[in-house]
Amino acid sequence: MKVYLGKPRGFCAGVVRAVDVVELALQRYPHPVYVKHQIVHNPYVVKSLEDKGAITVDDVENIPAGSTVVFSAHGSPPEDFERAAERGLNVVDATCPLVTKVHNEARKYARDGRKLVLVGHRGHQEVIGTMGQSEMDLLDNREGSTGPDWPDDTPVTVLTQTTLSVDDTQRAIERIKDRFEDVIVRNDLCYATTNRQATVKQLSGMVELVLVIGAPNSSNCNRLREVAEAYGVDAHLINGPDELDPSWLEGVENVGITSGASTPESLVRAVIEALGTTEVVTIEGAEEDVSFVLPPELRDVDRLEHDQDRVVAGDVTQSVARIPTANDN
Ligand code: SF4
């Protein structure tokens, strides 16, 4: 069995920062430290932080007055900050700066008197947070919506959820541009989403099966699976090696593996080992060197060391192939 391993994959800068924020809050503040919403959408990451003293809750109302709470990487609506203030909570905000950028855009364009359309998935935590910033219409491509029923000359600004499919989002944007005369497009898909999808497109042409390692409630993981399927290859999203189904592997000699922005690398390695892999070829796409500063209240502490060991254990041949990227132009 030969594995084609996508790179970049796994933790993005926003997830590294969010996990650091919880770890550092656990070091600095009395326990327990509460986390509103899963800090990132991965059960292994959530559990490892809970084992150290974090408690994950879905609602600010479930947090005892005076406690410390970390708000998750996906972003939160202003009401959550207001209710936290009413309860006297010490809030440390781990919202990814690329999501905060979308929040800032929403408020700016609303102040400018433009109507807002958010391309996103209804009910996702990031969408809840962004829609709380100002009045806006949601365009969810899964619902078959054709967009808002406004006059053609309405000034419209289009924002997007950061973790959508690049191709689906472009189609949604084109529909809005066709429909209205004055459209500003802020394509907010983040670098991690774009880079991981570009690599999975390359992988899909080389293999009979793609395995995306990550959680079923992770938006960016689901999009990776869908991209592989759209490129005509069988694809499955699994949390880890326990969810491998041997029937998927019948007649398969080449497997593509990638992981979402909130998936620990240890799970990728565990899947590769469970496959009995004899050769791993890393398919390198865009280089990533993004990192984000900590929230102000934690900036005086040292950043944590992260295990970015990407080496697969065992007697496995490894090599690297680099694919051309937009950065090469
Ligand atoms: S996927 Fe993108 S927007 Fe989301 S946390 Fe990572 S870098 Fe930030």
Q: What does the model show?
A:
The structure is a single chain. The chain has helices at residues 13-28, 43-50, 78-86, 97-111, 125-131, 166-179, 191-204, 219-230, 265-274; strands at 2-7, 33-36, 54-57, 68-71, 90-93, 115-119, 137-139, 155-160, 182-185, 209-213, 234-238, 254-259, 279-284, 317-322. The protein has 329 residues and is α/β, with parallel strands linked by helices. It has 3 domains: 2-12 and 191-328, 3-Layer(aba) Sandwich (Cobalt-precorrin-4 Transmethylase, domain 1), CATH 3.40.1010; 13-96, Rossmann fold; 98-185, 4-hydroxy-3-methylbut-2-enyl diphosphate reductase, catalytic domain (Cobalt-precorrin-4 Transmethylase, domain 1), CATH 3.40.1010. The strands form 3 sheets. The chain has a 6-stranded parallel β-sheet. Strands 3-2-4-5 form a 4-stranded parallel β-sheet, with helices on both faces. Strand 8, helix 6 (166-179) and strand 9 form a beta-alpha-beta unit. Helix 4 (97-111) packs parallel to helix 5 and helix 7 (191-204) runs parallel beside helix 8. The two termini are 34 Å apart. Residues 308-314 have low confidence and may be disordered. The structure holds iron/sulfur cluster. Residues 12-15, 73, 96, 98-99, 162-163, 190, 192-193, 220, 261 line the site of iron/sulfur cluster.
